[in-house]
Amino acid sequence: MASLLQLFLHFLFLPFLLISSSSIAFSHQIPKPYVVYMGSSASKSFGLDAKIAESAHLQLLSSIIPRRESERIALIHHYNHAFSGFSAMLTETEASALSDHHGVVSVFPDPVLELHTTRSWDFLESDLGMTPRGTVPHQHSSSDVIIGVIDTGIWPESPSFNDEGIGEIPSRWKGVCMQGHDFKLSNCNRKLIGARYYNLQITLAGNKTLGGVAKGSPRDSVGHGTHTASTAAGSWVNNASYYGLAKGTARGGSPPSTRIAAYKACSEEGCSGATILKAIDDAVKDGVDIISISIGLSSLFLSDFLNDPIAIGAFHAEEMGVMVVCSAGNDGPDPLTVVNSAPWVFTVAASNIDRSFQSSIVLGNGKTFQGSGINFSNLTRSKFYPLVFGEDVAARFTPPSEARNCYPGSLDYSKVAGKIVICVSDDPTVSRRIKKLVVQDARAMGMILIDQDKNDVPYDAGTFPYTNVGDFEGNQILQYINSTKNPTATVLATAETARYKPSPIVASFSSRGPSILTENILKPDIMAPGIGILAAMIPKSTEPGSVPAGKKPSLFGIKSGTSMACPHVTGAAAFIKSVHKRWSPSMIKSALMTTATTYNNMKKSVTNSSNSFANPHGMGAGEINPLKALYPGLVFETDVEDYLQFLCYYGCSQKNIRSMSNTNFTCPKNSNKDLISNINYPSISIKNLSRNQKARVIRRTVTNVGPLNATYTAKVHAAKGLIVKVLPSKLVFSESVKKLSYEVSFSGKEAHGGYNFGSLTWLDGRHYVHTVFAVNVQ
């Protein structure tokens, strides 16, 4: 045992200089959680067990932490399967000293990450897939695909996790079902095969700690994890609805026998990056096939790829054949807001489906307007209430701009009580929820919000009469107020609108590319339903007035966000994996990207919430089309060597790359960020194409996964003035030729400045292999 430990220490921690006496001056620094990332796990090479690795990490800590503070020589989390490292309480000086150690790739403060169905799957498969149900033989295929959902836990009693008709748990499953004060071993079954939980303490700025767990449990107390898990792989539940809305069959997108393993790594306050890393490490060790993470860093505080816990964990998961699907973030529609943008992560944007939830406004003059929102109001057309504008009922000494935005404390309660209040959204720092609570607390009868940007996303106001209109309708309502002495209105309960057009559109909140970290990889990758998604929910009321009178808390809920889009792609990936069991994560990713749909249910190009044509920075390759992705014809295989080259081109040191990969990988001599565009990715992005330079040549290689003898012809669609050529323009595959390479040249001499978008499609008469590109002409 001792010799093994010495070997491990020698391998990872060659002679390490102790912190000098000068560091004593900094001993008053307040320790906080740090992540120490040490690259590839040595246990994969040496077969070392976790206890030996843990002892080595503790010995390293003891070499830098003063003896008088020995209580800090402890690991919060220890990583030793997919990758190596730990998290611990360190001062800034200690963290800096560790970062200089030869066996350490990066050391960074434990970051706080954000938490980012009935109709959606039918919409994808029938309306966009253009394939009637029952015509594809996949429906009878069996599957033992295992999805790991890293989120806020799970509500095991939900009917979405019923295991009726599902076979025995795969023997390759190595995970556990952790018990807790409110979670029993029997809560796991043949559908929900695993559940883990972690200490959920997170440390915010100023060393404030939130969310400590006295009694741990995998049970979801937020609802986010239950919703995402059921969207990805929930069992079929008939007559599901949210108090009568969105009624139908709730289901996941993968085969019924797909398994779920829940990893509770988040609370309502957010997620510890160190805990996310531990959950990824555990999920890979447990034997999952796909990891779904509807979580991410804020786009305002992005870290590079070696300081981002999701990017680190996902790299090693991909290295071990486990796909990682992540949400793109909810900071749209501004550009440069996409997160989770590492090329080995499958990054998902959000769209709507052909269903909307509308609440009618009836004015005293008889005019009716349709607003967006979910409310279970008891108001009717037979009674009207005074209608006022926020700035006209401002509290004393309150600026009109604050009252019109319904800031907390901005309204005069005596002027608001019993009336319907109009608020605007000039200031995005005050959320719709806060505005609604302000108006509701003032004893108003209802609220109309004028917010063009969020008009596509229904806010759930519970029983409070609420609706959201755009600028056009809002202006007409304000004109009515100014044109009459006693304006009145009523806000009716929400009604569901089916077959809504156009859909899909890019959700207003969905984060947009290009990525701040590298514009030479096109992000987001793909788009999926993320607006008004009905899925399983924890059956408890969180706020007064959230449950209609006489009703029990719903077993299902309607939520919006890229968090809801991510598990749709996870489910689609599991669906493909169930048919193509030997396909790698990059092959599945490629299949979904190159078969994605770029038109809506009106047979026109996809638009965004502003009714402008969407581009790949909003929707990636397009809306997922799971049925077409089963048989893509050609795929782009992006292997680990591509990702290592990416890290070289990005500027990571060869030393760190070798630590990450546990190889003697050598970076190309002429590594620079422009070469990132050449890694074998299913889309193309070029950050800089000068009008004065010669044509830029990009190389790609495709693998034939369709008929052995096939001939594909290239078809290019490009923005006016951008000259795109493909060589060769024809690819001929045979029994002996399964992989072929080609080059695409881009010339921007006559193109307009800024990003130019287009696509290259390979056609063989049966398959359409669609590759989108984004080229920034300088």
Automatic annotation (TrEMBL):
Residue ranges of domain Subtilisin-like protease fibronectin type-III in the record: 678-775
Q: Where in the cell is it found?
A: Secreted, Extracellular space, Apoplast
Cleavable signal peptide: 1-27
Q: Where is the Peptidase S8/S53 domain?
A: 143-603
Superkingdom field:
Eukaryota
The record's listing under PROSITE patterns reads:
SUBTILASE, SUBTILASE_SER
Domain Inhibitor I9, first and last residues per copy: 34-116
Protein name per Swiss-Prot or TrEMBL: Uncharacterized protein
Q: Which UniProt keywords apply?
A: Apoplast, Glycoprotein, Hydrolase, Protease, Secreted, Serine protease, Signal
State the Gene Ontology terms under molecular function. Answer: serine-type endopeptidase activity
Could you tell me which SUPFAM superfamilies the record lists for this protein?
Subtilisin-like (SSF52743)
Q: Which GO terms describe its biological process?
A: proteolysis; response to symbiotic bacterium; response to symbiotic fungus
Family stated for the protein in its record:
Belongs to the peptidase S8 family.
Pfam families per UniProt: fn3_6 (PF17766), Inhibitor_I9 (PF05922), Peptidase_S8 (PF00082)
Species lineage:
Eukaryota, Viridiplantae, Streptophyta, Embryophyta, Tracheophyta
What residues sit in the active site?
D151 (charge relay system), H224 (charge relay system), S563 (charge relay system)
| Function (record text) | Required for arbuscular mycorrhiza (AM) development during AM symbiosis with AM fungi (e.g. Glomeromycota intraradices).
Show the stretches that span the lipid bilayer. none
Alphabetical GO CC annotations of the entry are:
apoplast
